[in-house]
Input
Amino acid sequence: MGRRSERLSKEGKLASDLAGEGDIIQVVSRAFDILRCFEGHEARLGNLEISNRCGLPRSTVSRLTHTLTRMGQLVYLPRDQKYRIGPSAVAMSTSMMRGLQLRNLIRLRLQDVAEQLPGTVGFLIPDRFHLVYLEFARAANALGLHETIGSRIAMASTAAGHGYTAALDAEVGQSKSQGAVLGQVNSADRFKLTALVDEFYLGHMSVGQESVFTVDGHDFRARVAKVYPQVINGSFKVDLHFEGSTPPDIHVGQAIDLKLELGGASHAVLVANGPFYQDTGGNWAFVVAPDGAYAERRNIRLGRRNPDYVEVVDGLKPGEKIIVSGYEAFQKMDRVEFGKPDNTQ
Output
């Protein structure tokens, strides 16, 4: 093995000599490039087709496909003079999929989202300039998804790819999609407001909506200029431009509380916006009994919310109380008993 490695190095066939990257062995990288050419279990490709897809010389492809066939990664079809994915490659992918313990949780969450839309939702992972379907879910009577688990789609020409690239944080040497923000130039006398809005209101937000805010006891107005649809940590970003006069003595990074009306005023049952919302997704809560001795789990449906309150659409009556603190320790409980206070001194 030592002499073999030495001979390859002298011939200049190691990736460190060809590409200047000592941590990447080019022949291994090229072998994986060839395996990526096969889309779906029915894909059959010849050396010429693989050469065109990978941009590698046909002689190089021929040597690599021969090696991959001997390893069981590919299977040669003499009648067609083509190759298809072999059992070893299938076994590797199956082991990887079984090892992803989060798949069950992802599948359940996707199904919930698909039913709420209703529609079809997919979960994808990046693979170079493509995305690979890891899971997907479809609501009843929704339009069908033509892709299957393991399918690869182009990152540059699909909605999923655009969403993925738009959410990436820029780093040195990183490629960004067309239209993505690379930086900004701040003006000393012109400002805008950037607000984080709960994802519930994404469908209700549009350019041109007016907001009101107060600075030093004076009211000012701003108008929505741009809505960023990417949801990060349960919120999406909105840019607002000042209407009329601008508050004096403001500076970049200053926090301002503003009110953005998305509809008319109405009567509603409200509860405090506490940590329970994140733990339950707003689907259930512990409702305190009238005598205050215990609290029972009950399904509820929540609607609009702001930083202080959440609207209860169904499941609670006016005057009923719920526990609004975190439910992390009570996820599997249906009833919580309240102990009597100890009055001993």
